[in-house]
Structures are given as structure tokens and as C-alpha cells.
Design brief:
The complex is a heterodimer of chains A (254) and B (463).
Chain A (H helix, E strand, L loop, with lengths): L3 E10 L2 E11 L4 E5 L6 H8 L6 E9 L2 E2 L5 H6 L2 E4 L6 E5 H15 L7 H14 L10 E2 L5 H15 L3 E5 L7 H14 L5 E6 L12 E6 L2 E6 L2 H9 L5 H7 L1
Parallel strand pairs in A: 3-10, 3-11, 6-9, 9-10
Antiparallel strand pairs in A: 1-2, 1-4, 4-5, 7-8, 11-12
Helix pairs in contact in A: 4-5, 5-6
Chain B lengths: L1 H21 L5 H17 L15 H4 L4 E2 L7 H11 L6 E6 L2 E2 L14 E4 H13 L12 H8 L5 E5 L9 E7 L6 E3 L2 E6 L4 E10 L5 E11 L4 E9 L5 E10 L4 E8 L4 E10 L5 E10 L4 E10 L5 E10 L4 E10 L7 E10 L5 E10 L5 E9 L3 H8 L5 H17 L5 H14 L8 H17 L1
Parallel strand pairs in B: 1-7, 2-6, 5-8, 6-9, 7-10, 8-10, 9-11, 10-12, 11-13, 12-14, 13-15, 14-16, 15-17, 16-18, 17-19, 18-20, 19-21
Antiparallel strand pairs in B: 2-3, 4-5
Classes of the chains: A alpha/beta (254), B alpha/beta (463).
Amino acid sequence: MSLLEIKNLHANIHGNEILKGVDLTINAGEVHSIMGPNGSGKSTLAQVLARRETYTVTQGQVLLNGKDLLAMKPEEAACEGLFMAFQYPVEIPGISNAYFLRAALNAIRKYRGQEELDAMDFLPLLKEKMRLLEMDDRFLNRPVNEGFSGGEKKRNEIVQMAVLEPRMAILDETDSGLDIDALKIVAKGVNTMRGADRAILVVTHYQRLLDYIIPDYVHVLVDGRIVKSGGKELAFELEEKGYGWTEPASAAAR
Amino acid sequence: MATAATERLRNYLEAFHRLGIDAASQPAWLRALRDRGFARFCEAGFPTTKNEDWRFTNVNAIAQTPFQLARDARQLGAIYGDTLDACRIPGAACQLVFLNGRFAAELSELGSLPEGVRVESLAQGIAHDGKSLESHLGHYLNIERDAFAALNTAFIEDGAYVYLPRRTVLEAPIYFLFISIPTQHPEMTNPRNLIVAEDATEASIVEDYVSLGSGISFSNVVTELVAGENAVISHYLLEREDRQAFNVSTLRTQQGRSANVSSHSVLLGGGLVRNNVHPVLAGEGGECLINGLFIGNGSQHMDNYMLVEHASPHCSSRQFYNGILDGHSHGVFHGRIIVHKDAQKTDAKQTNRNLLLSDDAQIDTKPQLEIYADDVKCTHGATIGQVEENALFYLRSRGIDEASARSLLLLAFANECLDRMKCLPVREYLQDLVQGWLPGISTPAGDTTADNLEIARRWEEVG
């Protein structure tokens, strides 16, 4: 069974249709990348999958591990194994990183009928994941994302992913604004998460990240539709020729 | 009208005479101080909303209630022993318990304090050390501008007294627990506290106001805090009385050269609460932090009136107040900063942030800067908003359900204030307390609403 199955997905925000019929199937063990120009609907797709309520789905179906994702609340989707690394992680002053993540992990464990972890069991786990992303221990007690640099915020997203161990992870432009060192650290973190039970969807504007997280499949999203799909070589082609190259296909699809 | 007012004052007059007889052993200077307080109170009467300092708070419910002086309830202490233990803050150097405003020795734990340190009841202090008290008590509080301060002064009888000799450093906090035990007849207490911290002292002092049982009571509190040169003193006020209680608290601090004083307030309980914080930065290089959190629900009214006086150069003051208001509650933040003519290089900052959780909750926030020096830096800012949707989605996307995510964000907002508290046992106690308090708020459950109505109804009767 596919981990994620998107069929003819249409979605709008405030009446503007952004997704105009997206079809995509992702199986466990695969890494997919969605690329596309600004405004093509990449982030909308990620947000709709994470169940952001500001978007309205007008048509289509999405199955997460065989269950109706579009009927789930954001927290239910998370508990069912979906994770989205935010393009713009939110700052939450007053709550420490460690407290927040333990609350999240325990919410998910509780949903799955597993025992909750106390602070003593949780801290070593968190520290291990933070080391993987080369984040200092002082980030444990700092308020969530507050005063973090852009790169620190993105690494913190991957720390969260590593702790929560989702089955379906979506990275929404995690590479934007990262320097090459931070990019490598993030990619290393993501790559250690690759596995037969898990699928990863990398949403990106640039091919650069795909040098480090090598996808099995690349899809090109233009104007709310996937207009081209292929292997990793498609990313290089896009890098060379630009998105303009895909447009005739887009026109043909209409 | 005049007759009604006279009628109301008669209560206080009778009480004043009774106290004169009961406390006949008070020294002449104290009786004179009390006379001045009573005269001023009679002259001024309770403030009305026409008074700019009271614009957002109507104290009619206090003015029209015929309060008696609270009876001596110390014999009840033993009965409540177990209940009391639940509210004590652990880890204190000493705990003084006051029942209906009077020191209850048998419920208190004096601990062992360093040589020369005095932590005792004000009445004991007056008996043992009248001379030093005379030189401080009533010397800082301005009874001219505040009728409640005058009323408290008129009824000085007991309270807490702290004396810290030069270079005393206390790591564990000094803890005062003030308990009101309401009866069918509305009663008032006028706790009067004096804290004298000599040069280079360090200490944390907690005042905690609670009710045992439900009913109308009025705590009219004044604390004078004198901090000598280089003293580092933290003062904590915790208000968690019954929802029918009235509480007016005034903290007046006098800071010497390079003294560093923090005032932390956490208002959770009480029906009508007025929290006055009035530091005077009287010596060069002083610093003060005024930090507060108020959480209102039902028909609670919580008014925070800050008056920061910069009277010397090179002083800095920081005000941070966060409010969380639900139900029909009404919050007020009035932050007044006065920079006197000679207070050059003043650095004053004021921030008030508020979350409104219901359509009927209300906040009035008002900065008021009066600057008579020309080389100063003063900033102020206020925000009013709801729980941020972005943050809510972020938490939910990590698996935390909506209700828990909301509570977590409220806790985060509260923690901004609690995190500024340096005294660890107090901070941890307050964090637990606030965390337990928050779920009662922002839940639109039927029970809470019924409770609110019940309280609102009782309020009608009071008014």
C-alpha cells in the first residue's frame, strides 16, 4: 500500500484556486522531490497535507497510509505519522525546546497507546538527535526558535523530525536561506532518517539541496499541477534549462 | 447623599475608636501616625472614577460595603492546619502566617536566621525595637494621594517586619502567608508590612494572600520597602484570594544608591484587585524591575497601577506586565513614569502585553510619561491580541491537540513573566501554580460558565 496517495487535489485560499488537480503517489522507502517556480503551489500543497485550516480543499482525495488525510485535524495527521518541516518555523517565547518536544512526542505516543516518556528518559534521546544536527545543548532550554538564526531554526525542524520519527515527512523549502555548511548538516540529518518504512517529500525551489538529499523521483509543479515527473536527472535538467522549459508541457496539459 | 456618605464613614469611625481602645498600648508616635491616616482618609473618602488614577476601576463596591475590622481568628488556626500546609511555598528560610491580619505564632516557622536579622510581626517589632521602626514606618508612603494608603495607616496594628543588617545575604526566601477567613459579615484587614534592608543586603520576600472559605473580605495592604546602597531585594506578591474578596495592595519601595529592587506580582484570585507598585529611585545608579502577571476570569477586575519615580541620575527601570483575560474579566495596566529634573541619563522601559480570550474580556492599558529632565531614554509599548493562530498550528502539527496547544501557549505567555523571577523555589512554585490555574481558563465548558454566573449574581448583591 502507498504511504501517501494524492488524487486530483484542488485547493484554494480565500477563493483563489492554487492547486488545480494534483496527482501523486509515494511509497514507503522513497524520497520524492517537488520542484517548481514561485507561486506554483508547492508550499500550498505542503500546508494542505499538514492540514492547515486556512486552505480549503474543493476536490480530490488524499490517503495517508490508507486513511483519509483530509478528514484529519493537524494533530491527528501528526499522530498518524505525518510531519512537515516548516518553511518559516514559528517562535514560541516562554516554552523551552525540550518541554515542547516532549509534549509533542508524548501526545503522539499516547495516541498510539504507548507509554509517555518522563524527562529523564526523554532528554538523552533529544540530546542524541541534537548532536546529529550539530546543535549545542544550550538549545535544550532556549525558548522554541526564539532568537535562533535562520539556519538554527531549520536544523531545529529536523531535530523535531528525528525525535518524532514520522512515517511521511514533508520538508517545505527547508533549504531556503541556508549557507552550504548548514545545508550539509540538514541533509545529513535527513539522510539518516531515510529507511524502508519511511517516505520523504522534499519541496524546494532550488536543485542545490538535491545534491545532498538525492531523490528517487522528481516532480515539477507548475500552476497547481504536476506537469512533469522523472528521476533525479530531471532536477539537473531543470537547473540547466530553468522552469520555462516545462511550460509547453503545462500548456499541453490544459 | 452626604448622609449616606457619613453613614458609611461611621463604620470606620467606630472601628477606629475600637482599635484605639484595643491597641491602647501602642506608642504615642504610632497613635499620632494613625490619627493622621484616619484624618486624611475621612477628608479624602474613597476615590471615584473621576480621579485619573482610578479612571478604570470603580471602588463603589468597597465604599458601600459596611466592613468591620476582622475578628481575631487565631484560635481557628489549628483547625485549618492541614489546609494551610497546602498553600505554603516550600524551601523558605522562615514562614510567618497571619490570620485575619494578625500574626499566628503557632502556625509560623521562624527557622534559623543569621545574627542580627529580624523577621517578626510588626506588633512585636514595635514592642522590641520601636525606635528603628519609628524612623521608617510611614516615612515613604504618601497618604495624601491615596485614600487606601491613608485607611491602612489609620488601622496599623500588625503585619510583617523584616530587618536585614548590612551585608546580610539570604538565599532562601522569607515567606509571609496572609489568610482571610470570611464570615457572613464583611470584614477588612489592614496588614502593614515594613522591610528595611541595609546596605549590601540580598534577600527575596514573598507576600501571599489567600482565603479560607468563601465570602466577602477586604485586604487593604501596604508594604514599605527600604533598600540601602547596593542592596539586591526581590519582592513577590501573590494574590489568590476568593473571587468575592477585595484586595488593594500598595508596595512602596525606596531605593538607595545602586540598589537593585525587583517587584514581581502574580494576580490570580480576588474579585476586585488593585495592585499599586510605587518605587522611588532615590540614589544614583539604581535599578528596578517591575514584573507582573495577571490572569482574570469570570467577573474579576484586576487593576495594576505602576508609578515609577526616577529621582536620581543613571537609574534604570523596566516594567513588564502580561495579562490573560477570559470571561467578563477586566484588566487595567496604568504605567506612570515620572522623571524628575535632575534624573539625567534615566533609562526607563515599559511593556504591557495582553491576551483576550473572550469577546467580553476587557483591558485598559495606559502609559503616562512625565519627563522633566532632558537627557533620558523612555520607551513604552502595549499589545492586545488573541492566541496566535500560527503558533497554534505549529504546535498542533507536532501532534499536540488544540486544547492542550492553547494551554501551552498561555503558559508560554505567562512564563515570559515567571522566567524573570530569580528566586528558584518561588519561581518553581509559581510555575506549577499557574500551570494548574490555566486549564480553568479558556475552556468554554458549561461548569465554568455556571460558576461565572453564580459569581456575577453574588456580585450584584455586593454592589
